[in-house]
Structure formats: structure tokens, C-alpha cells
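A favour, since you know our C-alpha cells better than I do. Could you add the entry underneath, on a fresh line?
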Amino acid sequence: MNKIVMITGANAGIGKETARQLALKKETEKVYLACRNLEKAKAAKKELEEATGRLIFEILIMDVSNPDSVRKAVSELHEPVDALIMNAGGTGGKNPAKLTKEGVTNITATNLLGHVVLVDELLSANKLRNVALFASSEAARGIKKMGMKRPNLKTSSTEEFATVFDGSFFGKDFDPMQVYGVVKYGGTLWMSSMARKNPMIRFISMSPGGTRGTQGFEDLPLIKRIMFKYVGMPIFMPLMGLSHSLGKGAKRFVDGINNESLKSGRFYASKEGVLTGQIVDQENIFADLGNEEYQDNANAAIHRFIE
């Protein structure tokens, strides 16, 4: 039973809606809102308390793009969490290709590196009890209808995954939307590797699907953001099975940590061709996801950037 849950990126979008849904479950006793901005976190906490009638939300300041911030947050966490939902992510801000001091791109730092540090720190401090869920994306196995290509690595070696994470793999063709998918692919493989190394914890990768109201693409260029947010997502994408409500996206996360029939080390997302509806094991769509050598190589590669 998951009584205490931590959610990264919990002040808006899917993260906040996930917190709301969890609070409606009587077994949930506390939800940590792991957010980088204190004022936005306070506003979200107030809204959640009013919406649910429960005073179970606690703010934990954490910027997942900054490993030092993650370490500090874990050191200030005075109790273990039963479940971790790694929701924070996106297309890397205004400078997605810029390298952090750790040597990864901003898009890698936001979606992956900080969460790797978070899991490592929680495990090291015995502060993670039951389950870790990584917000992956169908982009990790390609979304043909949206022009997002399936990751196509040549060797899938540790060295090649490292070039994905530092951006050099993409050269001058650094399209944040495409890079996002390959980074999520690397993160999903990392989770599968961690599942085998830590059999007492369930490691689940879960896509929320094409979710309207998500904050993950707020940093896209203005025209792309307007088209995606106000035209594609609410009008055309639902007709094509490519978007659903915020509530349905968040429900996948809530079900993901609570449904013990979901197997550790697997990636669950929509059926091929859509971003909505029933979730299925993505290994049946993209066999590379089940390659243990690739999984361990991705894990080793991202750990190269952790001091």
C-alpha cells in the first residue's frame, strides 16, 4: 500500500492532477509536492487542499535539472516514501541543447539525469519502499502520425548512449521534439536496468499518453507551442486518437503505482498508432526496449555524468 507518495513537477499539469487523484484515495496519507518554485508550489498546495478537502500535501523544493538541488531535497526528507512518480520533464526550456555543468543537455537534465540522481539518493538512504514510476512517452518508440521517429542507434553502446545524453549524437540536427523521444527511450531503458538490479522495488515506465493541459511543451517556440497547445491538442489530435484529458493522463500514473499486476522493468503506454486508450507493454511494439544489454548500457551511460 502506498501511503506516502512523492511527485516531481507537481505544481501544475499532470503532476498536480495526479496529486489530486491520489488525495481522493483514503489510503493516501501524504503527498510530497517536489517543485522547483516555492511560490508556485504554495499556490498548488492551496488549490489541492481546497479541491480535495485534505491537508496531506507537503512541499519539497527540488529542481530535477540540478543534481545538487535533488541531493539537498533528499537529505531534508525525514521519512521514506512508498512511491515515487517522476513526472517532471519537457523539451528542455529555451536552450534545450545547452550543456549543464554535469555535461548533459538541458533536455537530458530535466527529463532524466535529475531523476537518476533522485532514485540513487533515495535508495542509498533507504527512503524508497515500494515503487518508482518514470514518466516516459510513446515518443520513446516513435509516433509516426506526429512525425516523431523511432530511436535509431547504430550500436546502442554505452558510448553511443552518452552521445545522446550530451547531445553530440544529433549534431546540427537538434530538433527538441525528436531529441525528447530518444532521451525518454534512454530513460526507459535505465528503468528496466534498475528493475533487475533492485528486485525489491517495482520500476515502472508509464506514458500518460497525449494529454491535454500538460506543461511539458510550454518551452517550444511560440508558433509551434500555439499550434500544439491550442490547435492540435484540443481539436485535431482527439479525432485521431492522439490526445485525451488531463484526468485520464494522470490516472495512468495513479494506476501505475498501485496496480501490482504491472510488471517491474516494463514500459506501458498506448497501442501503436494512438496515444490514448488501453495501455500495453511497449516491448511488443519496439523489441529493443527488452534488450538487457541496451538497458545496462543506457544506465551506465547516464551514470557517467553523475559526480
Observations:
- The mean pLDDT is 92.
- Residues 4-301 form a domain with the Rossmann fold fold (CATH 3.40.50.720).
